[in-house]
Write a structure and sequence with these properties.
It contains four helices and four strands, in the order αβαββαβα. By secondary structure, it is an alpha+beta fold. α2 runs antiparallel to α3. It is elongated.
Length: about 120
């Protein structure tokens, strides 16, 4: 193998590795953009979780994690939800959840995960 062909081979390998790195970075960016944080706060009553999860199920969203706490009569819930499979724009899902919150006397906040993380950095 000549010096030029070795150089060409190394450069080709570097280009391939760079393309793979870009592909991995792009897939991570897409997956981060497809996750949202949903926070629900209000007076505890039956059906709060059922109402929120029914909307998510109807829109084909996947709940990745949920943390729920009841403090005295205050209900709090934070969910991490994958929305890459939803059949409506994110803004429609956000509006639907917020409207459900208003009708149910709850505060429902829906944010992309990256925005949530940026707002809560110490």
């Amino acid at each position: 193998m000549t010096k030029k062909s070795k150089t060409d081979n190394v450069q080709g390998t570097i280009r391939l590795m760079a393309a793979q790195a870009r592909s991995i970075a792009d897939s991570r960016r897409i997956s981060a953009e497809s996750r949202v944080v949903i926070a629900v706060i209000g007076r505890d009553k039956a059906g709060i979780m059922a109402g929120v999860t029914a909307i998510l199920a109807k829109r084909n969203a996947n709940i990745l994690d949920v943390n729920q706490t009841i403090m005295s009569d205050l209900f709090t819930m934070v969910m991490l939800v994958d929305i890459k499979g939803i059949h409506v724009p994110f803004s429609d899902l956000k509006t639907e959840l917020e409207e459900h919150g208003r009708q149910s006397d709850l505060s429902i906040i829906v944010q992309h995960e990256e925005i949530f993380k940026a707002m809560h950095r110490v």
